[in-house]
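User: Let's play a game. I give you a shape written as tokens, and you guess the letters that built it. Ready? Here's round one.
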């Protein structure tokens, strides 16, 4: 099977007939930006042996590749529009692998009303590498960043932490949660700042605290944990839930809105004026010692 046969048979159907993809007959896609909207972009790469184990089910690989990008776009208040897909194979994949991989992508696409606008297939010496660039739209000037947290904001997470880390420790790769297509609208409506939890709760909340010049106080007992040691859960990463910084007078509404779209949110702490520090509180309000390693780092 040649590269172009592979593209036309397995990857072109992911364009779902959208004119923007130009039939995969061009090296570029042409996207129209509606009036009053702006484009938002994010890119994530998944490498065999780092982000997923060898012989992981191609369905899981596809879901992780797409959803890790979706959580970034949605945390920024962007509605997913389309994506570019680059896959590097160390050997020609069989038809069963390609069918399962692309079918899983299409299932998520259909649920979120997005499409593949193009990409690249190439070879690599060892393993498998997948890069997705996700493209989204948001109302102009309405993007959510890490830098907007305010004094007194509640910190809300959209689901339980630790499942991805626990699976990794067992030598397994699992799919991240697939957020509802309206997640970005909820983020825009209620959050002053937001971040997806990919590197670990402490690390990612730390990014928000530092960017916003706020201190974050986290209540360990309030953090939803999924069958994992709490300290490991808050540093392990690979969760892809979203943490939101929400004004206190909007927290009840935000919680209801998140529940309505299938999330399982919890208030886990708050921000106060400071210098970008994190404190972790125990059941009696005592300050706990922070782990030395507060999140995933590649280097």
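Assistant: Ready! My guess for every position:
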């Amino acid at each position: 099977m040649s590269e172009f046969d592979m593209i036309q048979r397995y990857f072109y159907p992911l364009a779902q007939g959208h004119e923007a993809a130009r039939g995969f007959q061009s090296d570029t896609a042409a996207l129209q930006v509606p009036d009053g909207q702006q484009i938002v972009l994010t890119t994530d790469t998944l490498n065999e042996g780092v982000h997923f184990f060898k012989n992981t089910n191609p369905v899981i690989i596809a879901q992780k590749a797409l959803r890790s990008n979706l959580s970034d776009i949605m945390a920024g208040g962007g509605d997913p529009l389309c994506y570019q897909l680059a896959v590097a194979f160390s050997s020609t994949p069989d038809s069963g692998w390609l069918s399962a991989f692309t079918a899983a992508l299409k299932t998520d696409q259909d649920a979120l009303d997005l499409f593949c606008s193009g990409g690249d297939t190439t070879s690599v010496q060892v393993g498998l590498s997948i890069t997705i660039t996700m493209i989204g739209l948001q109302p102009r000037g309405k993007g959510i960043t890490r830098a907007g947290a305010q004094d007194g904001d509640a910190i809300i997470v959209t689901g339980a932490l630790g499942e991805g880390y626990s699976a990794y420790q067992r030598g397994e790769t699992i799919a991240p949660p697939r957020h509802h297509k309206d997640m970005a609208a909820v983020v825009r409506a209620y959050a002053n700042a937001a971040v997806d939890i990919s590197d670990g709760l402490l690390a990612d909340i730390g990014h928000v605290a530092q960017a916003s010049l706020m201190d974050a106080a986290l209540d360990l007992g309030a953090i939803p944990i999924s069958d994992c040691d709490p300290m490991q859960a808050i540093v392990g990463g690979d969760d892809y839930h979203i943490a939101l910084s929400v004004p206190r007078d909007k927290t009840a509404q935000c919680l209801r809105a998140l529940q309505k779209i299938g999330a399982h949110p919890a208030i886990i702490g708050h921000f106060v004026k400071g210098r970008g520090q994190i404190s972790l509180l125990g059941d009696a309000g005592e300050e706990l010692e922070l782990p030395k390693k507060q999140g995933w780092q590649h280097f």
